[in-house]
Amino acid sequence: MSPARPPSKLPCGARWIGAEAMAALKPFTMPKWGIEMSEGTVAGWQVEEGKPFAKGDVIVLIETDKITNEVEAEADGCLVKLIAGEQDTLPVGALLGVMGPADADRGEVEAFVAAFRPAGAGLVESADISSNSPAPASNTPEPQAPAAARKSTIATDIAISPAARFAAEASGLDVADITPSGRHGRITRQDVDKAIRGSRKPDLAGPIAAPGQEEVYASPLARRIAVQNGIDLSQVRGTGARGRIGKSDVLALLGEVPESAATPALRPVEEGVEIVPMTAMRKTIARRLTEAKQAIPHIYLRRKVRADRLIELRQSQGKPGTLNDYVIRASALALIKVPEVNVQVHEGAIHRFSHADISMAVATDKGLITPIIKRAEELDVATMAERTADLAARAREGKLRGEEFQGGSFSISNLGAFGVDEFDAIINPPQGAILAVGAARSAPFDVNGDIRIVPVMQLSLSCDHRAIDGVDGARFLQALADLIENPEQL
Questions:
Q1: Is the domain of 350 the same as that of 234?
Q2: Residues 6, 16 contacting (CB under 8 angstroms)
Q3: In this structure, are residues 22 and 106 in contact, taking their beta carbons and an 8 Å threshold?
């Protein structure tokens, strides 16, 4: 008899594992969108465990560092087991759930979960999904007890991860006395491993042995330093993830950590203070902006431009777009005139673009994202307005495709609508420049030798001085000012 073969079409994210006894069960894993994606966050399940869904239904929302994508079912199916919880951040390929018939045997499902390994993950423990920081794998093999003594059943209302449940039931462990360390009081595989080890004497190898400290959750280096200095780790308070004791915690007791490097003492949360964890997008924004500010030598060029004629032109045309749409159009034409600013900066090379692919900054509830108007110099203002409105709406909904926000040759950030007069923006690498646009406010302005009160906009151009000289940035601002002050050219 030929072995069971996978169907020609599986639900989105499913991957076939051909064990005949579990042929009906299939893993639903963290998808990969784009080369740079290494992990994703479960923003929200759209289906319920054990309830069938139809082709085209949204199964789950996955948030990456830039967008939130909907994972749609490519065929009818059912998630018989939900593994990942909402807001769990997991690597690509990690098990999110199990697909199968609604009446699938629970024992087979649990065995399937315990046996699952992501492709190419080797011995990575992927089933225990209790927090953003993976629990350390146990270095001690689980004790082998007689089969009759190992098996037990844990109530379904106990908050425990699938891998922890399987290990506890297989070992006959009573989880009632386990103190959970996972999110929302969830028992993790680490908790079960610790309970299984109990008081068993460790079998340590190597030049440094730490008898009596094997149950302490600490890094290997922290253990070594503690043994060398006679420190009882059970009395040390860990400041790492899940209370893990690190090198700095042990050195702090020895007085060897400089004040600048010491971990600050945790302060109690004051009344009225809400702690909001950073989203994956916000963490990425923080990391990229920090790197950009530290690694890129910024040069700032500022200029005032009169905006009265541009405002009058927009009104006479029936306001086909926002003032920002006109600025984007003008910037695109200026970039074509001064291609030295229309660049990306890569290691040892400058990539000069023949088209103005302009990234516009859009604020969302999860952070800033920069969708790209491709070939902006080819769009008239009305078409530009339609394009920018569509991109902004889908950016706020988290529905942009990767190619719609990755890349670009130039960025524009306009805070004029929020009443900001002027500001300097941080370059969005690998782009070479970003334009910051302030509000149009009435101010004195020299018009052919006469001082007049007209609407004036403040422009600030941030350039990567490794690739763009000050004179090139000045030429760009000159071309942009000419287009804004003589808008009939638009």
A1: no
A2: yes
A3: no
pTM, 2 dp: 0.54
Distance CA 112, CA 109 (A): 5
Neighbouring CB atoms inside 10 A of 423's CB total 12
Same domain flag for 326 and 441: yes
Instruction: Exactly one of 298, 351, 355, 465 is catalytic; name it.
Output: 465
298 and 364, same structural domain? yes
What average pLDDT does the structure give for the chain? 81
- Strands of 361-423 (E only): list them: 362-364, 367-369, 372-373, 410-414
Q: Say whether pLDDT at 33 is over 60.
A: yes
β-strands 372-373, 450-464 pairing = unpaired
Which SS3 state, helix, strand or coil, does residue 134 take?
coil
Structure-token pair, residue 401: 């495709």
Percent of the chain's residues with pLDDT above 90: 40
Distance CA 109, CA 103 (A): 11
Q: What are the structure tokens assigned to 254, written together?
A: 């020895």
| Residue 432 pLDDT class (50, 70, 90 cuts) | very high
CB-count exposure of residue 265 (10 Å: 0-12, 13-18, 19+): exposed
Does 248 lie in the same domain as 302?
no
**Into how many domains does the chain fold?**
3
Domain that holds residue 50: 20-115
Of 14, 111, 107, nearest in space to 53 by CA: 14
Task: Please check whether residues 446 and 319 belong to one and the same domain.
Answer: yes
Residue range 191-207, pLDDT digits in tens? 887 887 764 555 544 44
* Residue 18 backbone class (left: φ over 0; alpha: ψ -120 to 50; beta: rest): beta
Look up 346 and say whether it is catalytic: no
Classify residue 146: in a domain, yes or no.
no
Residues 317 and 445 placed together within one structural domain of the fold: yes
| Domain shared by 237 and 339, yes or no | no
In a domain, 11, yes or no: no
pLDDT, tens digit, for every residue of 193-247? Answer: 788 776 455 554 444 545 555 567 788 778 878 877 778 888 788 887 777 888 8
| One-character DSSP codes across 295-326 | HS-EEEEEEEEE-HHHHHHHHHTT--S-HHHH
Q: Is residue 54 part of a domain?
A: yes
